[in-house]
Write the structure tokens for this entry.
Amino acid sequence: MTTGVMTAAPALRAAPSHGRNTYDPAAVRGDFPILSRTIYNKPLRFLDNGASAQKPQSVLDAVQNSYAREYANVHRGAHFLSGAATEAYEGVREKVAGLLNAPAPENIVFTKNVTEAINLVACSWAGAHLSAGDEIVITQMEHHANIVPWQLLRDRKGIVLRVAPVEDDGRFDLEKFAALLTDRTKLVSVTHVSNVLGTVVPVAEVTRLARAAGACVLIDGAQGVVHQPVDVQVIGCDFYAFTGHKLYGPTGIGVLYGTAERLAETPPWQGGGDMIESVSFEKTVYADPPLRFEAGTPPFVQAIGLGAAIDYVQALGMEAIGAHEHALCNHAMEALRAVPGVRPIGEAPNKAAIVSFVVDGLHSMDVGAILDRQGIAVRVGHHCAQPLMARMGIESTVRASMALYNTTEEIDALAAGIRHAQKLLA
Amino acid sequence: MDLTAYEDYAETLEALDDEMRFEYLLDIAKKKRGEPFPEEAMDDAHLMHGCMSRVWIVHDISEDRHYFRGHSDAAIVKGLVTMMTDSFSGLTTAELAQITLDHVRRLNLGALTTQRQVGMMAMLKHLQKLAGARPGFQAA
Ligand SMILES: Cc1ncc(COP(=O)(O)O)c(C=O)c1O
């Protein structure tokens, strides 16, 4: 899929700097410049990947190369550089389609993040196809990005929002979910992986049940696509959204996958250049998907960075990344359970490498601040999931979210850091 | 104006390195100085809004001078609140109105993140509002 135009650029180091069959975190770390820096004179231990992951050199190079050597507006100029930028941008659409096993690049719409992707579906597709009394099912563990757009739609159109429960240990109960489906259910919008609990939602079963009830399915894959291989055709969903910055890519680029059928029936969202076929004051003809949904100059440099990130994770292998992170997650759960007074929040059997916990008698903010002084970056707070916090009867958690470059040594440092916090704050 | 408590804190902090400043802050939080914060004041009416942790402030006036007591459910924030309320209690309304970001900066000294400096400024404004020392602002 790379063309003569593309290969005119200097060869970029797309592949990780080590062999494919031996997963060596130490070698992988060498690909990420930021991981060698220190914080307060301590080595950085970055465990806040659920918020945003760090970028490998190949992504930084791709962005730099795009600005330095191939920069011109896409889809417009009749000149070499515009052609090169357009090919690179459209090439990323193919890469994303490959990552998700989408049938074609035309199934891939670029957005600025997953939040925008969900809002696009809420405003345009759901706005056109749902009416008062129709129902949307979400879950108790959604990120605010998969709650508020539906509430806005509820306020605008009088749709009904139903919420599938989550169990005390963070498990998702399929039967309880199925019980919420009615003949008015038009859409099921669920997260693939909870950003707080790490729970992996059985999205293929969810989709099967939703389909049987005649509903469409949107999956918030912000945390899903980073921890495991994703195949949208096996899942069978109508929409799948993710965000580039959590997948080792730049900020400012997100993805909405939609089936050809859904995208075709989705009216334009924002109007402007690039999304039209022809414009006159009497009549404007809109472009076909995906360009119909990409009004204005898109974040094509960021998309090119995302393309490099996809090359990077695919060279390592999503299976291998998932296996490495699974081992880290088990190690983390064990290490945390061994610290008296630490209570993990989210112990579902099928869990991605996201570990939330509370420490008896300590405020999460204090734990986070003391870990920070040791160079350990975690997130504290409600993680944009306040309804889930309310469900779990807590106000906040400390969250360690792992990535392909984390090590068991870092997890041990986290556990030691928590003990240190307990000592300091006793 | 009498800023003895403030000067004490500032001079102590200036003599410490970053790591020790952090521990000093925790010590302040843990030290039971003065009366304990009244349990019944840990309510919505005394809550300072807009913080990640909860912060409660009680304001009293005696002989035209303002006295504050503060509390938080997070220890580090409790340390910051205590430092602020100790530092700026006993001032008149006019004196309190003269306290600025520069005063707060001296208590911050890079030991803390910028985020916390923003938090401390918010605390100062809250104290000034409670005391009516910010013209045009009413305590929420
Ligand atoms: C599950 C989930 N959904 C949505 C989002 C929102 O992502 P973004 O801010 O990139 O739109 C996040 C991350 O913050 C997330 O974890």
About this structure: The mean pLDDT of chain B is 85.
